[in-house]
């Protein structure tokens, strides 16, 4: 199995045949109390990591992730760089989508409102 995504080498043994890793990403604009960007990593449906644009940190949600990070001092920096890169990509694409939404608002005589985009990515090991 070849894994090139975030934390691929760390989770390689866990994902070899039985586990599934997925990401849930939300990017939003003008929604009160919601970060503009939120990225959550799951393994088998259990949240293990989270990054958001307010804290600007990658946070472990389970103790065993912190134990892995203790063995790999660069883990949090790599995760943070990947999350910030993803955040920038989503920000650019939200700006493009906002232009299209403004056109639709004018066409349908709507004012105000907010915008959010969500994506869920599942990464399954090769069979």
From TrEMBL:
GO terms for biological process: immune response. Residues 1-27 form the signal peptide. Transmembrane segments: none annotated. Residues 20-120 form the MHC class I-like antigen recognition-like domain. InterPro entries: MHC_class-I_related, MHC_I-like_Ag-recog, MHC_I-like_Ag-recog_sf, MHC_I/II-like_Ag-recog. GO terms for cellular component: external side of plasma membrane; extracellular space. Keywords: Glycoprotein, Signal. This is MHC class I-like antigen recognition-like domain-containing protein.
């Amino acid at each position: 199995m070849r894994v090139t995504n975030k934390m691929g080498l760390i989770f390689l043994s866990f994902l070899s045949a039985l586990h599934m890793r997925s990401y849930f990403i939300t990017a939003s604009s003008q929604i009160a109390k919601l970060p503009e960007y939120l990225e959550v990593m799951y393994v088998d449906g259990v949240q293990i990591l989270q990054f958001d644009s307010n804290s600007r940190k990658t946070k472990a949600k389970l103790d065993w992730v912190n134990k892995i990070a203790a063995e790999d001092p660069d883990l949090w920096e790599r995760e943070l760089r990947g999350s910030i890169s993803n955040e920038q990509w989503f920000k650019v694409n939200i700006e493009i989508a906002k232009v299209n939404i403004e056109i639709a608002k004018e066409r349908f005589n709507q004012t105000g409102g907010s915008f959010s985009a969500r994506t869920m990515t599942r990464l399954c090991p090769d069979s």
